[in-house]
Design goal:
The complex is a heterodimer. Chain A is of the alpha+beta class. The two termini of chain A are 35 Å apart. Among the domains of chain A are: 183 residues, MetI-like fold (Orthogonal Bundle); 54 residues. Chain B has a domain of 201 residues: Orthogonal Bundle (MetI-like fold). Chain B is 68% helix and 0% strand. Classes of the chains: A alpha+beta, B mainly alpha. At the A-B interface, helix 2, helix 4, helix 5, helix 11 and helix 12 of A face helix 2, helix 7, helix 8, helix 9 and helix 12 of B. Chain A: Its main location: membrane. Chain A: One of its GO terms (cellular component) is ATP-binding cassette (ABC) transporter complex. Chain A: InterPro entries: AA_ABC_transptr_permease_3TM, ArtM/GltK/GlnP/TcyL/YhdX-like, MetI-like, MetI-like_sf. Chain A: It is found in: Cell inner membrane; Cell membrane.
Chain lengths: 394, 365
Amino acid sequence: MQNTANNSHPKGSVWTDPKARAWLFQIIAVIAVVAMGWYLFDNTQSNLEKRGITSGFSFLSNSAGFGIAQHLIDYSESDSYGRVFVIGLLNTLLVSVIGIVLATILGFILGVARLSPNWLISKMATVYIETFRNIPPLLQIFFWYFAVMLSLPGPRQSLGVGETFFLNSRGLYMPAPSPTDSFGTFIGALLIAIIAIVLLGRWAKARREATGKVFHVSIAAAVVIIVLPGMALLFAGNPLQWETPALSGFNFRGGWVMIPELIALTLALTIYTAAFIAENVRSGIMAVSHGQTEAARSLGLSGAITLRLVIIPQALRVIIPPLTSQYLNLAKNSSLAAGIGYPDMVSLFAGTVLNQTGQAIEVIAITMSVYLAISISISMLMNWYNKRIALIER
Amino acid sequence: MQTHTFKPDMPPPVLSVGVLGWLRTNLFSSWFNTLLTLFAVYLVWLIVPPLIQWAFIEADWVGTTRADCTSDGACWVFIQQRFGQFMYGFYPTELRWRVDLTVWMAVIGAAPLFIPQMPRKALYGLCFLVVYPLLAYWLLHGGFFGLSTVPTSRWGGLMLTLVIASVGIAGALPLGIVLALGRRSDMPAIRVLCVTFIEFWRGVPLITVLFMSSVMLPLFLPEGLSFDKLMRALIGVILFQSAYIAEVVRGGLQAIPKGQYEAAAAMGLGYWRMMGLVILPQALKLVIPGIVNTFIALFKDTSLVIIIGLFDLLNSIKQATTDPAWIGMATEGYVFAALIFWIFCFGMSRYSMHLERKLNTGHKR
């Protein structure tokens, strides 16, 4: 092929041959990038030497020596920077997961509300969406943190729901469960119930496909899931002990606490992202043509079944790709935690650890790769889900 | 012979026309809808009256100090007193006319671009894009032709927000177009380089990019060469935003039918002429709304420069709320900031929707 191509342009020199030129361009580009990289690397090397910074990741095993407001795993000041990294990562994941779940729920509700035939409901959803998606997320975080959370009353005057939940300027206090001896029995009963329901569902489906007889699984399932764990509860006793927070001295003790930074961050990210998700949901549902509804109804399907089997599967196909990018945005926006000092990846690791150790390159590289890894995992997960629900076309 | 005369039509039922009819179809069409309406009315009643009470009826509008805020409502005196700082940051008061002039020049200079009948619009736009930044730099920064220098460390407020956003988009646009072309290129090495670049910047949050440009950039540069804080932030913003622009432009390039490429090649146009004369003019026109949306995102993201210590609108307000003379003004400050950001973003999103309708000609099948 190469020869015939050359033979058909006998007078063309190497310079006018598109293939040769493509090669040349690519070689020049690669050389330029490599040279640029080498230049930066060289500069960095000499700069680091001049400042007396030794590069490498050995600093990760040094003792950190500072306290952290929220840690999901045990931590003390003498623990290493490596552990600080894990804590930051877990805190980032925590706020991302809570935010994604809440924003999805709120976003779907708002998206459906905006399409509601009820004028008032749809206008309210519109006002919500247009307000919150046009205000920077960082500003919303600041608002919830500085204007709302920090101006709440102190622990002694906290707002309480019953004697179990307390909200004050130090956070939201709630009862913490701890398993008792009968916890295993209860979980076992619950698992058996779930397995039984799954098997029942399979049997019912097989029977329906074979004989056409319908068996109402939902009623049976409700009975099974209430009766089995209920019996465990009755005979083995309470599986969980609830430790309620109580005021002692100037602060609450016991129970779980959601620190104000986490509350502000979760609220702001949820409210902001939900506005975008609502728009995706709306456009997804609107993308399913009305003929689909009419066709389903004329086949005799009820309204709820039409929604579940016809509209939603087709709408999801449109909703999932933009939803993925909203999830990515939320995970990336969780880094705004640095603005209010929530101990996430950025504020803990790229902020405090960087300042203490001066290992700028390593710290930033680790931080960026963590976010890249999170982004890639979310998009792979969502792509997998998208493929699963995609319509199989010819 | 008996002639048949029609009786006049009966009026439609009272409940299906007029205000009552509207209410019935839109608010009370079923018991569930009625329930929803009542719930919504309750929500509105819960939120709106206290808000109006706080923001307008019980608010304090006149005064000079915190002591003038005696009522329970909002203290807008705070905003009035600090307005200059929110708009200009620490820009010297006697030189603020330079900022105003820059803004007015932008408004007046760009106005002809929005007149549909304007002749030679493209040429004028190009001249404007070349001349205006130089002029704006001269006015804002000064240092030559008789204007005194105002270092960027004194820039702040809304002005800095606008500077970062507009320089960011102006720098990101050409870079983004080149990246998009590279990603669609036939040459594997170029494509891989561009894809890596784009996906890298899209995968990391802007905040880490700003961290990187503020702590790592000085390490990358040779001795003696250093940028000030604003410049470093701008470099970060431009690199970050160019990846997003590239994806928007790629969408436009993909939307151009293959026949256009083939026709251009058949006319004997080389790659750059094909792109410059045939493909890009069509593709860019298609993606203008997308670019405006990217700009809105960038405009909101400028608030992140607070992390590296620049005094944009949000940071100016945050600083002012920590002033001991104005303690407890956080709500007023953030509401004001939200209002400014909202006006800009909402205005631009409406404009982008308008453009989308206007430019939606003949490409949809």
